[in-house]
User: Fold this.
Amino acid sequence: MVRNSIILVDFIELRLGHGRSLRDACLESGAVRFRPMMLTAFAVVIGGLVILADPIFQGLAISLLFGAIASLLISPIAVPLIYYMTHARGHKKPAAPAAPADEKCTVAPPPSH
Assistant:
């Protein structure tokens, strides 16, 4: 589940590199990465259900299941929010897009000697 947090931060920084605002990058990271995180958590839950039948490892299975579910619910919200709160002060807004260039291209004449 730590890997999910690292991927979220990496996704935010990737979006910032593409010129998104900090707010948009943080919102997109939680929304876009939720499905892969959910599939990973469901795989852990299904694997943990097999261990529930074993009396020795039942406690481990319960903590594994609840940890995966709690991480799925908390990570996509908490990680982008904490990232936004820690980086909001020093972050510059993305530059405005450049004005479209004229259709005519003017080329300076070659220098005469």
Remarks:
- The chain has one domain: 2-87.
- The mean pLDDT is 84.
- Residues 6 and 25 are 15 Å apart (CA to CA).
